[in-house]
Amino acid sequence: MKIRPSPSARQEQKLSPRLYQSLKILRMAAPELMELVQKNLEENPVLEIPEPAGPDTAAGARKLWQDLAAANRAGKRRRPGAAPPDSSELVSTPVTLTDHLNLQLALEDLPASQMKPGLAIIASLDSRGYLRDSVEDIAAALGNPATAVLAALAVVQGFDPPGVGARSLPECLLIQLRQMGAGRLPQVIVKDHLAAAGRGKTRKIARELNAAPAQVEKAMEIIRGLNPSPGSLFDSDEPPAAIIPDVYVHPGGEGVEVLANRELLPRLRISKQYQKIAAAAGGGGRDTETASYITSRIAEARKLIRDVEQRRVTMTRVARTVAAAQPDFFQLGPGALAPLNLADVAAQLDVHPSTISRAIIGKYMSTPFGVFEMRYFFSAGYQAAGGPLAATAVKKRLQELVAAEDRRRPLSDQKLTEILNQDGISISRRTVAKYREETAIPSSRERRIGK
Asked: Which of 85, 176, 271, 349 has the most C-beta neighbours closer than 10 Å?
């Protein structure tokens, strides 16, 4: 029996400000994370790479890391031997906002009356993540009641990135504040005093709300930390980056062994020298401004170190769960991929399903059969003669059949369906046609040669 988090548990998830920020790190792909760490190394003087044993200095270690990061940006970085020899030639496929949201929608056990509006809502989002069409227009186009579209919109607005599916800036910010559990004051300011907050009118807002200016300023600081354009996280004109696996999986003594890619990032630490300077500057009330500055930078560095480590732990836990659920794949290859659902992995790890979504989108796993994006291992299933088979494995079988066909007499969708049925895979011709299109296989007429 499959255990799934209840819909109410999914929708009622609350994110503390600390968790809210750490999830941004989890969402980052490896090249993006490398850029972030490099930026922090350059801008935060208290953050350093420990001095290695031997003649190299800490400065030399930092220079080595900078060279590695630069090589990655140029797509030239070589991976350890566990990766296939040609993995350096691979480039990552940009993850679109639509991809990210459709994946999350797929794990929701929604009735058809909400699933169809959900897909329409996602298709209607602009590059910022805002809803372009009105609820009434979407309902009219689908022939569904507006209440069904509103119900689907509420589901989409609970997805990652926080604030997506909003119809206005205030609604976008309010969605994020509610997910953070930020309290009443920031929400009231967004609803009724957003313009004044944008102009920094702290005392005016405090008077009108009968609140302490310090409380208002703290609330406004939370608001300033929100993202007014959540879809922009997926909007990039950068060229595709070289794929860098987050984890390596290979056969071990018992089953498979999962290793985090320790080469991905350098080990980071807080400078002891700056810690001493902060303590000395703040002692006895001397130079408290310097002490305050260094203390704040130390807090930022600690948070980065903690969040990067949490990302590594989460990625490793997810990869181990995936490997345990796909033993045949790691022995036999892609043709043996089994069905796997995000919600089941989330339940097993006792995390919210959106955490799994963040952990697999744009992240890669190196296996004995190549480097795969981690979402590759999640797929609906079909009952086959040898047991459950993932849709991804069915697509691979479809590709094999087409590759081996007589191009003078290519297999029609109906013939492909019959062969798959004979293999014990219960699938319809309509689904075969859909999978053929998704794998960029032309129709039988287009594949025919010698016309």
From this structure: 176
